[in-house]
Write a structure and sequence with these properties.
Layout lengths: L2 E8 L9 E9 L5 E8 L8 E8 L2 E2 L3 E4 L6 E8 L5 E7 L7 E7 L10 E2 L16 E2 L5 E8 L3 E8 L7 E2 L15 E10 L2 E8 L3 E7 L10 E6 L6 E4 L5 E5 L12 E6 L7 E7 L5 E9 L2 E8 L3 E9 L2
Antiparallel strand pairs: 1-25, 2-3, 3-4, 4-5, 4-6, 7-8, 8-9, 9-10, 11-12, 12-13, 13-14, 15-16, 16-17, 17-18, 19-20, 20-21, 21-22, 23-24, 24-25
Length: about 325
């Protein structure tokens, strides 16, 4: 499959207003502009870490701007989502410790230029409802699935389900997992796609040296037992998207070592619903950290962001050909 690289650049051209950044999310706006968000501060988990963003208009990224900040409490893992009516939502975590963080939402009605006061996604939530890292999936019947997970002594994944456009959410069951076969804590941070109406699939970050997978035949209400794939995983974030022609595009670190190096980072594609993958484009291969990708599509155009050495966010625009 041919890949045409349209753009490869860093989002921030000048010295960023923070020492460290990580965990980006990317969104194509209805008018074609690109919006990216990430967390930034002294270091991951520091009390000054806030949610930042930048908007790309006519090929030019804006100076980074702060979207959400509650002084003295670390912010984590922003996830952008655009509703069918065009409103932009930003989901993100707030908390000193991952097992007890909470999910907040803020909304923009002007393409990310201004944002509402944040509110809890689920009142009283402790542990993190809603999308934990990767984008929300809108099924063909309109149902929303938010890929979620819990990180305590054991790692578990689930999906949050909304059948009213995101007004209310219901937590689905934990993804079944045979823990007798595991060496580590489990699986987290699902990424989702729908192959046919109500046939939904997820890939999962794991502690086992490979990416895991689970499948649903009822729109995400129930899921198969998670099972290992042949894709290596370094216990770092992954993301997948389905293009307009049904091709899957996966961005990940092809390193099969638990807590292994976060380089290289690669774009792989599948034309058989994830049964097999071909490695198509190495995005980074040098020493450093290139991790936590986000990928979205518009037609056969792919838009990718990821952490670049914890000091910047990398952006790629790639077109899939025949």
């Amino acid at each position: 499959m041919r890949l045409n690289v349209v753009t490869h650049e860093l989002v921030m051209k000048a010295c960023p207003p923070f020492a460290s950044c990580h965990a980006s999310s990317v969104l194509v706006l209805p008018n074609g502009d690109i919006l990216a968000a990430w967390f930034g501060g002294t270091e991951e988990g520091a009390p000054d870490v806030a949610i930042w963003g930048s908007r790309c208009v006519k090929g030019q990224w804006s100076e980074p701007f702060k979207i959400a900040d509650k002084p003295g409490i670390p912010h984590w893992n922003p996830v952008l989502f655009v509703s069918q009516e065009g409103s932009i939502y930003l989901f993100y975590k707030v908390g000193h410790q991952i097992p007890t963080w909470q999910t907040f939402i803020t909304r923009s009605l002007d393409g990310g230029l201004s944002w509402t006061d944040p509110c809890e996604m689920v009142e009283g939530d402790v542990g993190g409802r809603g999308p934990v890292k990767n984008k929300i999936l809108t099924l063909r019947n309109g149902r929303l699935l938010a890929p979620a997970s819990l990180e305590d002594r054991e790692w578990n994944a689930f999906v949050d389900i909304s059948d009213d456009g995101g007004q209310t959410w219901t937590a689905g069951p934990l993804i079944p997992l045979d823990r007798s076969q595991l060496k580590g804590r489990g699986v987290i941070q699902p990424t989702l796609w729908e192959s046919h109406p109500n046939h939904v699939h997820m890939l999962l970050r794991s502690t086992e040296g490979v990416i895991y997978r689970s499948d649903s035949n009822d729109g995400g209400s129930t899921w198969s037992e998670a099972y290992p794939t042949d894709l290596p995983n370094n216990n770092s974030g992954i993301d997948v998207v389905q293009t307009g022609q049904g091709t899957l595009a996966l961005v990940y670190n092809p390193v099969g070592i638990d807590w292994g190096p976060r380089t290289p980072i690669t774009l792989a594609v599948s034309v058989d619903n994830g049964e097999s993958w071909s490695e198509e484009l190495i995005l980074e291969s040098g020493e450093g950290e290139y991790s936590y990708p986000a990928v979205v599509s518009r037609g056969n155009d792919l838009f990718i962001t990821y952490t670049w050495n914890r000091t910047n966010i990398a952006f790629w625009h790639v077109v899939l050909g025949g």
